[in-house]
Write a structure and sequence with these properties.
Number of helices of chain A: 16
Radius of gyration of chain B: 25 Å
Number of strands of chain A: 2
Largest sheet of chain B: 6 strands, mixed
CATH architecture of the largest domain in chain B: 3-Layer(aba) Sandwich
Helix content of chain A: over 70%
CATH topology of the largest domain in chain B: Rossmann fold
Low-confidence stretches of chain A: 1-6
Order of helices and strands of chain A: HHHHHHEHHHHHHHEHHH
Strand order of the largest sheet of chain B: 6-9-10-3-11-12
Number of domains of chain A: 2
Strand content of chain B: 25-35%
Helix content of chain B: 25-40%
Number of domains of chain B: 3
CATH class of the largest domain in chain B: Alpha Beta
Oligomer: heterodimer
Distance between the termini of chain A: 17 Å
Number of helices of chain B: 17
Mean pLDDT of chain A: 92
CATH superfamily of the largest domain in chain B: P-loop containing nucleotide triphosphate hydrolases
CATH topology of the largest domain in chain A: ABC transporter involved in vitamin B12 uptake, BtuC
Chain lengths: ~400, ~500
């Protein structure tokens, strides 16, 4: 295991790498296959800059909800209510902005606080009263669906006039040197992202070598950096040729950064993985399991509210049908992204890939004008195959 | 020639790294009450699991002859089909179901395709009559006391037409009256021709009821004594149970003076609110700085409950009287977190269930209970964390390629060292070790004993809970013996002998 003299060849190392990280790589490969498939079926339409921007805007609300869901699933709970919490939150935002003429940013703040309170209510039921999360949030599904319908009963669908609010899921970041051909700021951000990523990888590698941990050989390391850099630049180039980075991507990116940092670098993150892996051991290690569980419920409902805001912004209106089936996409994204069904394992960065898989399917099949019924069946099949594969590959270890 | 209903010969059963049974011979005469005794871990339960098919044929070596024929049980229903029924200490009844549903659970009386409830109730009433339980068969089992639940289990066994009844510690959770009733019932069953194997720690009951007594120790048969031809004294059984030579497996530690009292319990009484039963009664104990205090007692004496109730009480027991003092000051610990903050640490007996995060690496496991020390602002300082984890890996010799190794992949001994490292890093003043060497090999045991010596020499206090008598005698400065939730006695190690301790442990 330590660095011995018999160094494996480059190709051989790649094969071992692929074998040990099979689960993760399978997800990327599946994602690429899906993209290629749709690209061919739509004569390239799927990969056009306009559609990529579209895809990001469509996926945003699911992405933030899936990030919240990932935490809940890691600690072995579930939240079925996120869909209607999102729908209800969007309706509340719309009512605040139209009926009460509230400033859109204040309305967003109020709705996010509402999300936190909903999370607090469900979290207290689970931790203090002891109602299982499945039941608590199933009841939540009823309640928030009812509240959504009730709040839009008199008005029906509410059209939102606020430009700032609509921009959240329709607008793009401004450019520093506006021109017709290319979005300069987008390219610049791409370059900065690549540089940051390479810097942090190099630093991490140095550290690992310092502490005699196993690291991949230098050529493999280079190849990895190269692939990631190319992928980022292709996406950025494509977006730059259209209207630049969508605001949704910025919002999802910030949420992702915060959650990723929280899970990997803070005590809270350690506690979350600990509770998922072995709740009793966590309690005996001095972790306040109830408090962390309460946090997870607050966080998932907060993300549901944010998702509701993004979705409402995307539609530029609040409708009584908003929220239907959102929880399915959020849960599927997390599991496709590699959260273990037994809990304790999962990464928010991979959850985003899971969201992209699910939302590419939606987007691609819509472009192909496939009936919604078939869409559900296909998504369900891909979901169950991913989880079955996950369960098998974990059991082998 | 003697008529044996059961002959087990040359039984060997291995678990990874441990030989649980090593060439056990065990013969039971038809129609007798045969008691099986031995310390915890002697192999009694394993032997019964081999017999009943819980460990299927092929997973052990040796012969099982039942009614003279070699048996190859692959599952429990195979042995039950031949009339061998085990009643475990943890009763296998379903509390919400009625008595009659429980009695015929799994072998329902059928009429065509559906269950014949009338016949079921009639027969259940019949069985209850046989075991002398006056209760309405339609009553839910949860409304019965433990003693009567035990009777329902026996009724269930009778309904399976039992020929060989095995009882694993049947009186462990019964009071005196219920125990006497049960023993009387066993005598009646014997008169009706049922052979009975009883595993028990209660020597008084054994000498009262046994026709034959077999003693197991360290996975081997030590002796089989005929109790019908002569009276067998408890002392004789104890001698066989413990009669092991004290090997030189306990590292010496330097003589050093003890400091002030680090932890003291006064009048500590604990109630289990679920069972609504007092599980610990008026416990007084203390440990000084630099001292190793042993707590010895048999299974069910309340040792782990005692440790948990001190360590912030995560199981939700109610402390009805008493106070815990740390360094002379009374403290109330509401959560393990409080306990850790006050300098208490608890190394669990169940390292896989309660102690470790098997899916996480060594580093994660070592630092989890004291991350405060590694936090800069919000972030965990990973470089410092790695350095600390590496230090512990070196200093207590955790054998693994790196601290990135998942703990689930380590051997038992190394897992235990990770647990110890975790709690050493929490920098406690008082360390509670619950069965610190259970299931690990001799080499790792020695290392753990040496580590304990090092810690007390630095002034730490250790409370060591162990059911291995030689270990308690070999490592403690002073020891308490627990029995049935009380402290049955306190001994200085130089005054203690295995016989004395065992006599206290079985005193109630």
């Amino acid at each position: 295991m330590s660095n011995n003299n018999t160094k494996p060849g480059f190709v051989q190392e790649l094969v071992t790498l692929a074998r040990t990280n099979m689960r993760e790589y399978m997800m990327y490969i599946a994602f690429i296959i899906i993209m290629v498939f749709f690209a061919i079926q739509t004569d390239g339409g799927f990969l056009q800059a306009r559609n990529i921007a579209n895809l990001i805007n469509q996926a945003g609300y699911v992405a933030v909800m899936a990030i919240g869901m990932t935490i809940i699933l890691i600690i072995c709970h579930i939240d079925l209510s996120v869909g209607y919490v999102a729908g209800f939150s969007g309706a509340v935002a719309a009512i605040l902005m139209t009926k009460y003429h509230m400033n859109e940013w204040l309305a967003i703040l109020v709705v996010l606080v509402l999300g936190l309170l909903i999370g607090l209510y469900q979290g207290l039921l689970v931790t203090k009263v002891g109602v299982p999360a499945f039941v608590t949030t199933l009841a939540g599904m009823f309640i928030f669906r009812g509240l959504l319908n009730l709040s839009l009963q008199d008005t029906g669908t509410i059209i939102i006039p606020n430009e700032g609010f609509k921009a959240l899921s329709n607008g793009f970041i401004p450019d520093i040197f506006p021109n017709d051909k290319i979005h300069v700021l987008t390219l610049l951000i791409g370059v900065i992202l690549v540089a940051l990523m390479i810097l942090s990888s190099v630093k991490e590698r140095k550290n690992k070598i310092k502490y005699h941990f196993e690291v991949s050989s230098f050529p493999v390391f280079l190849l990895k950096q190269f692939i990631v850099a190319v992928v980022i630049m292709i996406v950025m180039w494509t977006l730059a040729r259209y209207q630049g980075i969508p605001w949704t991507a910025v919002i999802v990116g910030v949420v992702l950064l915060i959650y990723n940092y929280m899970l990997n670098r803070t005590k809270l993150g350690r506690a979350i993985y600990g509770i998922g892996g072995n709740a009793q051991a966590a309690e005996l290690s001095g972790i306040n399991v109830q408090k962390v569980t309460l946090f997870a419920f607050c966080s998932v409902s907060l993300m549901a509210s944010l998702g509701g805001i993004l979705y409402t912004s995307r539609l530029q209106s609040a409708t009584p049908t908003a929220g239907l089936g959102f929880e399915m996409d959020a849960i599927a994204s997390s599991y496709i992204g590699g959260v273990a069904v037994s809990g304790g394992v999962g990464k928010v960065t991979n959850t985003i890939i899971g969201t992209l898989v699910i939302m590419s399917l939606t987007n691609g099949m819509n472009l192909m004008e496939i009936d919604i019924s078939y869409q559900y069946i296909v998504k369900g099949l891909i979901f169950i195959i991913a989880v079955a594969f996950d369960v098998r590959s974990r059991r082998k270890k | 020639m003697t008529d044996y209903i059961l002959e087990m010969q040359g039984i060997v059963k291995e678990f990874p790294g441990v030989k649980a049974l090593n060439d056990v011979n065990f013969k039971v005469k038809r129609g007798e009450i045969h008691c099986l005794v031995g310390e915890n871990g002697a192999g009694k339960s394993t032997l019964m699991k081999v017999l009943s098919g819980v460990y299927p044929y092929g997973s052990y070596t040796g012969d099982i002859r039942y009614n003279g024929e070699v048996q190859k049980f692959r599952k429990i229903s195979d042995s039950e089909g031949k009339g061998i029924v085990i009643i475990y200490q943890e009763l296998a009844l379903i509390p919400e179901l009625s008595i009659y549903e429980n009695i015929f659970f799994g072998h329902e009386i059928m009429k065509g395709k559906s269950i014949d409830w009338n016949e079921t109730i009639t027969q259940a009433r019949n069985m209850l009559g046989k075991v002398g339980l006056k209760a309405d068969p339609s009553q839910p089992v949860k409304t019965l006391g433990v003693g009567n639940q035990q009777l329902v289990e026996i009724a269930k066994a009778l309904s399976k037409d039992v020929k060989l009844l095995i009882l694993d510690e049947p009186t462990a959770s019964l009071n005196e009256d219920d125990s006497q009733n049960l023993l009387q019932l066993l005598r009646e069953l014997k008169a009706q021709g049922v052979t009975c194997i009883m595993i028990s720690h209660k020597l008084r009951e054994i000498t009262a009821i046994a026709d034959t007594i077999t003693v197991l120790r360290d996975g081997a048969t030590i002796t089989t004594m005929d109790a019908t031809s002569r009276t067998i004294e408890e002392a004789e059984i104890i001698k066989y149970m413990v009669g092991r030579e004290m090997d030189n497996i306990y590292p010496k530690r330097k003589k050093h003076a003890f400091g002030d009292i680090a932890l003291e319990l006064k009048n500590w009484t604990v109630v289990d609110p679920v069972k609504n039963r007092e599980i610990l009664h008026h416990i007084d104990l203390h440990v000084r700085k630099g001292e190793i205090v042993g707590i010895q007692g048999l299974m069910g004496a309340g040792r782990t409950e005692l440790a948990m109730s001190m360590f912030g009480n995560p199981t939700g027991y109610r402390i009805s009287t008493g106070k815990l003092f740390m360094d002379g000051r009374g403290v109330t610990l509401k959560h393990p977190k409080d306990a850790i903050r006050h300098g208490l640490a608890y190394v669990s007996e169940d390292r896989k269930g309660n102690g470790l995060f098997l899916g996480q690496d060594i580093r994660y496991n070592i630092t989890i209970s004291n991350l405060e020390e590694l936090v800069d602002g919000l972030s965990i300082n990973e470089n410092e964390e790695i350095a600390i984890a590496n230090d512990y890996k070196e200093s207590i010799n955790i054998k693994a390629p790196s601290i990135e190794q998942k703990v689930g992949n380590l051997s038992g001994g190394n897992q235990q060292k990770v647990q110890l490292a975790k709690w050493m890093f929490a920098k406690p003043n008082v360390l509670i070790l619950d069965e610190p060497t259970r299931g690990i090999d001799v080499g790792a045991k020695y290392e753990i004993y040496s580590l304990m010596n090092r810690l007390v020499e630095q002034g730490m206090s250790i409370i060591m809970i162990s059911s291995e008598l030689p270990e308690v005698l070999g490592m403690s400065d002073r020891l308490y013996v627990m029995s049935e939730g009380t402290i049955a006695g306190e001994l200085l190690t130089e005054d203690a002998t295995e016989e004395k301790v065992m006599a206290m442990a079985v005193s109630s």
